[in-house]
């Protein structure tokens, strides 16, 4: 690890929890490999402390930062402007400090769709089922539609505060893509079963199943899983969630949020530094951690 100097540029992650994050490993290794005078740290920040944290980071002249749950939508109120993608999605996971102007970006969708491609899954003209309507889910939905997915079935709890935002995205994507997007009640088990039957990909984009609540799972009926279904969980702690364990036991292809994290991080890295993250070297490095 290179020494921190008087000119070291600060980057980091804001969220709760963040202690499990491998983002510091990814970014600090990449900075070192490219001989960049940057450092990446984690900050335990929730919705109640986010506003004060942003004020402090402005004073510190942070180069940029990532946001994870629960801050991806809350942060919109504290930024100066948004990229076109972030404006469409209505959520931010990456902030760039450009000469004192805080610009919100969203790289989650790009990262997720790259992770799907890495699995050899071709989504163009296909159907997918998406659980959740938070910041990550919204980004995944938008990018999937832009990448040519034919139909997306989104399942949300009926009392979710995010419903107006996902309905707005639904209308915006209807104008900009040919993707058909349907919003369903997560409590409607029959509707969920029907949607998954028609899908080649099921994605859990909620925090259900994340450590320490590793036994939690939104899918109770194992008959939902079928041999032509791939199952993704954006969680990577634990490495294999209960959902993925169930899916694997029913002969589904499964993958977690590790690659999504890596590829969305690579895009954030490029935004902050203007350089390409050495992704293959990062993958090798993480194998030995």
Question: Would you give an account of this structure?
Answer:
The chain has 289 residues and is of the alpha/beta class. The protein has a 6-stranded mixed beta sheet. A 6-stranded parallel beta sheet has the order 9-8-7-10-11-12, sandwiched between helices. 37% of the residues lie in helices and 20% in strands. It has helices at 23-33, 50-59, 84-89, 108-118, 135-146, 163-176, 189-197, 242-249, 258-273, 279-287; strands spanning 9-15, 38-44, 64-67, 81-82, 94-98, 101-105, 127-131, 151-156, 180-185, 201-204, 230-233, 253-255. The model has no long low-confidence stretch (mean pLDDT 95). Strand 7, helix 5 (135-146) and strand 8 form a beta-alpha-beta unit.
Annotation keywords:
single chain, 289 residues, alpha/beta, 6-stranded mixed β-sheet, 10 helices, 20% strand, globular
What portion of the residues fall into strands of 2 or more residues?
A: 15-25%
The strand count comes to 12
Q: Please trace the helix and strand order, writing H or E for each element.
A: EHEHEEHEEHEHEHEHEEHEHH
**Order of strands across the widest beta sheet?**
2-1-3-5-6-4
Give the % helix.
25-40%
Low-pLDDT parts are none
The coarse silhouette is globular
Helix/strand-derived category reads alpha/beta
Rg estimate, integer Å = 19 Å
Largest sheet entry: 6 strands, mixed
Overall mean confidence score, pLDDT: 95
Number of helices: 10
Spatial separation of the terminal alpha carbons: 15 Å
